[in-house]
Amino acid sequence: MQYVSTRGAAPVLDFEGVTLAGLAPDGGLYVPSEWPRFSEAELRAMRGLPYAELAAQVMQPFVGDSLTPEQLRTMCTAAYGRFAHRAVTPLVQLDEQHWVLELFHGPTLAFKDVALQLLGLLFEEFLGRRGENLTIVGATSGDTGSAAIDAVAGREGVDIFMLHPRGRVSDVQRRQMTTVLAPNVHNIAIDGSFDDAQAMVKRMFGDTAMTGQFRIGAVNSINWARLMAQVVYYFAAAFQLGAPERKVAFSVPTGNFGDVFAGYVAAQMGLPVERLIVATNVNDILHRALSEGDYSAGTVTPTVAPSMDIQVSSNFERLLFDLGGRDGTAMAEQMRGFEATKAMRLTNAQREGAAALFTSSRADADDTAQAMRWAYEACGQVLDPHTAIGLHAAREADVAADVPVVTLATAHPAKFRDAVERATGVRPHLPARVGDLFQREERYAELAGDYAEVAAFVAERATPAA
Ligand SMILES: *Cc1c(COP(=O)(O)O)cnc(C)c1O
Q1: What whole-number distance in Å separates Cα of residue 293 and Cα of residue 286?
Q2: Among this protein's residues, is 342 annotated catalytic?
Q3: Measuring from atom 1 of ligand 1, which residue has the nearest CA?
Q4: Contacts of 46 (CB under 8 A, 6+ apart)
Q5: Pick from 187, 208, 207: which is nearest to 199 by CA?
Q6: CB of 386 closer than 6 A to ligand 1?
Q7: Less CB within 10 Å around the terminal CB: N or C of the chain?
């Protein structure tokens, strides 16, 4: 499998190359040159497989020759063996039509573990082969950071520098990052928003003073391997609900558009997906883009669902590229316009293509609290605020009554226990595996929102590429 940039002017890479790359050098994002497609018979043969085995089969076409099937299977077994539930991503029924897919049974209680536990193993394998070092630089609005840090802490050949917006991640989220004291882990609190932090990370990828010395890698969902690993649970859930004979709809609490884009990939691969519901909070750029064609960034409003508090959704470019006929030159021009003005209109082809599969919705604070209350009072399920936003969108969406709607549960409710308690009166407990979080020592640097200072901090501590 080969990977091309959405902006059409970067070298083509194989899976190993794309895993170690971040943003493409032309500023675009890497996507497979074509979508592999499973026949109905192949889909039927995958039903009932254990999660790790299903993962290896779904991902193999994307991995190509970069790993043998045996290597890939071994990695999936190791990555998903760290999950606290035997089913890895269990499906829970709420009522006749609604289901919740629990993606939070990994080591850091967020769905990001599903992809990052595998990515940590991929990094180790590919870097070891090449005798190289990788400097991971990431920005997190909460869950990415802890999941990435857990996935690479102590691993050979990798240093990780994780920026978080000071005071805008929960205590649990911060401590999950800052209490990992492995010497290759560097946490940085910056003054500013998640978007400011992400802008610095993007800038570092284009900073030749840095890229000349270090191999800068990404763990944000701009990394293709992450999206690939997320495709798997759409298959797992749909098979349990009757696919490929029956269509299934998914509602996805969305921030950077990575998770829901994985659902789009699953549909391109032949999984019968009825609808993908993009759930946003009041930071609703994606809702405006999908409902009105208006992709324009405002300012970020902090909410009870911080992992969705972003205004620019990097992975949306991957969808626009695919829907716009995969024209890299046109995409580069459209994105140049967006970067200059922070606003753009979707083309008719992009709008119509998106409307065929996507619906969107926006939840404010009341909607979010009400969804948490309904899940608890009517169904006995305690949901975190992100998942509740997904459920609100799922219940609002116009989906035929005989189509099951699966809401992706992206975080364990104990990560956001204050918001959960305010809405439901229930204070969720941290699971035993992270129970001593508030007794552990923390370590992190505090820097101003200044790029030069952050770059100097990284340059002093990172290991050169080779
Ligand atoms: C990261 C995250 C999201 C958003 O996922 P994207 O792939 O960025 O759209 C939603 N909920 C939680 C809890 C998250 O950690």
Answers
A1: 9
A2: no
A3: 307
A4: 38, 54, 57, 58, 235, 239
A5: 207
A6: yes
A7: C
The separation between the first and the last C-alpha atoms of the chain, rounded to the nearest angstrom, is: 26
pLDDT of residue 311: 81
Atom of ligand 1 nearest to the CA of 258: 7
DSSP state of 438: G
- Beta-sheet pairing, 405-409 with 445-447: unpaired
Q: Is the pLDDT of residue 14 over 90?
A: yes
Q: Please give the Cα distance from 275 to 234 (Å, whole number).
A: 12
Does residue 112 have its Cβ closer than 6 Å to ligand 1?
A: yes
Residue with tokens 């009757």: 242
Query: In whole angstroms, how far apart are CA 392 and each of 97, 282, 287, 357?
Result: 13, 13, 14, 19
Does residue 143 carry a pLDDT above 80?
no
Tell me how far the alpha carbon of residue 269 lies from the centroid of ligand 1, in angstroms: 23
Task: In whole angstroms, give the CA distance from residue 449 to residue 201.
Answer: 12
Say if ligand 1 is within 6 A of residue 259 CB. yes
What is the whole-number distance in angstroms between the Cα of residue 331 and the centre of ligand 1?
25
Which string of DSSP letters, residue by residue, matches 95-153? SSSEEEEE---STTSBTHHHHHHHHHHHHHHHHHHHT--EEEEEE-SSHHHHHHHHHHT
Give the pLDDT of residue 205.
86
CA distance 394 to 403: 12
Average pLDDT, the chain: 95
Whether the predicted pLDDT of 276 surpasses 90: yes
**309 in contact with ligand 1, CB cutoff 6 A:** no
CA-closest candidate to residue 384, choices 169, 376, 92, 283:
376
240-264, pLDDT tens digit by residue?
Answer: 999 999 999 999 999 999 999 999 9
Q: Report pTM.
A: 0.94
> pLDDT tens, 179-231?
999 999 999 999 998 889 989 998 998 899 999 999 998 777 789 999 999 99
Pocket test for ligand 1, best of 109, 112, 144 (most atoms within 8 A of CB): 112
> What CA–CA distance (Å, rounded) separates 69 from 243?
25
101 — pLDDT class (breaks 50, 70, 90): very high
Residue to mutate, 149, 308, 392, ligand 1, most ligand atoms under 8 Å from C-beta: 308
Burial class (CB in 10 A: 0-12, 13-18, 19+), 135: buried
- Asked if the 86-109+224-424 domain carries CATH number 3.40.50.300, the reply is no
Tokens at 192, concatenated: 């500013």
Q: For ligand 1, what atom is nearest to the CA of residue 254?
A: 9
